[in-house]
Amino acid sequence: MDASSAPRRPTRPRPLRDAALAFTLLTALPLRVEWPAAEERPDIAGWFPLVGAVLGLLATAIVFLAGLVVGLAGPTAAASYTFGPVAWPLAVIVVGTWALATRMLHWDGLADTADGLGGASKPAARRAIMADSATGAFGATAVAFVALAQVASVATVLGTSAVTLTVKVAVLVAVPVLGRLAATMACWFGTPANPGGLGASVVGRPRVAGALATVVVLATSAVMLHADAGTLGVGWLAAGILIAGAIPHVLAGRVGGVTGDVMGASVLLTEASLLLLATLVVIA
Predict the structure, then answer these.
(1) Which are the contacts of 230, defined by CB distance < 8 A and separation ≥ 6?
(2) Cα–Cα distance, 282 to 213 (Å, whole number)
(3) How far apart are CA 60 and CA 28, in angstroms?
(4) Total domains present in the chain
(5) Is residue 273 part of a domain?
(6) Residues with Cβ < 8 Å from 133, sequence gap 6 or more?
């Protein structure tokens, strides 16, 4: 999206506008929102984790509906559902819903970033490949493996009887939050690779409202995880914060700065990493 060509709307309070812009950029939600003037630097990125929280709640609704169906047949243990043979189809629905709700934006970024990293050795050449709308072998392979990792991990989390339904839900809420935190980290601490690209329009120092929103969402996720998973759940969340900061830093370093594709790839790689970690740690 080009900030200069975006339509102007009536002015609204800056935090509400920035939050609405975050949902407009990262989801298919059709909000009417004013794009800031070219000289203004909004803190849209500070609201990305809130977008993730909403996506997590969407997954929660899906899981609870499935839980009601399984519950009608009899729960396997107090407050715990294994979902049995429906764990894999349910995982496909959850991951597919996340993808559709975000207009496949992050998956496109992952494919472009993988093609750029695999197709050239110089940052400028990598960015040129990433700008091409065609998807090559590296991009297709990356999308396939990351999608498989996400679906398999969600199915494992939902299919285990080792943790309660509350922990399953907490993981599914925290994962998209931390995935969007990776994009936030890229914007707050990175440098845009292209002066006129999406990265340049959202990269900048955090503001109080956006930073507070991020802290509140992360703190809520920590409380949810600690309630049933204890210190192990909080440790998993802390590891997720570190991963969310590391992945965009590494990717941006390889392509010469932050781009929209780098942010999208960072979201999905962070989510996949945390879901795989959850299968090894949270449900151990």
Answers:
(1) none
(2) 26
(3) 19
(4) 1
(5) yes
(6) none
Question: pTM (2 decimals)?
Answer: 0.90
How many angstroms separate the CA atoms of 167 and 101, rounded? Answer: 23
Q: Residue 2 domain-assigned?
A: no
For 72, how many CA atoms within 13 A lie in the half-sphere containing its CB?
5
C-alpha span between 148 and 170 (Å, rounded): 21
Residue 152's domain comprises 14-33+40-280
Q: What is the DSSP letter of 34?
A: P
- Which amino acid belongs to residue 43? D
CB 18 within 8 A of CB 47: yes
182-209: average pLDDT:
85
DSSP one-letter code for 83: -
- How is residue 68 written in tokens? 């009601």
pLDDT tens digits for 129-188?
Answer: 999 989 999 999 999 999 999 999 999 999 888 888 888 889 999 999 999 999 999 999
CA within 13 Å, CB half, 48: 30
When mean pLDDT is compared across 6-20, 36-50, 109-123, 156-170, the lowest value belongs to: 6-20
Q: Is residue 9 part of a domain?
A: no
Which residues make Cβ contacts (< 8 Å) with residue 103, sequence separation at least 6?
27, 28
What is the residue-averaged pLDDT of the chain?
87
Vertex 44 angle, CA 171 and 60, to 5°: 25
pLDDT at res. 3: 43
Two tokens, residue 121 = 């050795």
Q: Collect all residues with Cβ–Cβ distance below 8 Å to 223 and sequence separation of at least 6.
A: none
What is the SS3 assignment for 10?
Answer: coil
In DSSP terms, which residues pair with 192 in a beta bridge?
Answer: 258
The tokens describing 263, both together, are: 């942010």
**Residue 2 above 70 pLDDT?**
no
**How many CB atoms sit inside 10 A of residue 170's CB?**
29
| 162 domain-assigned | yes
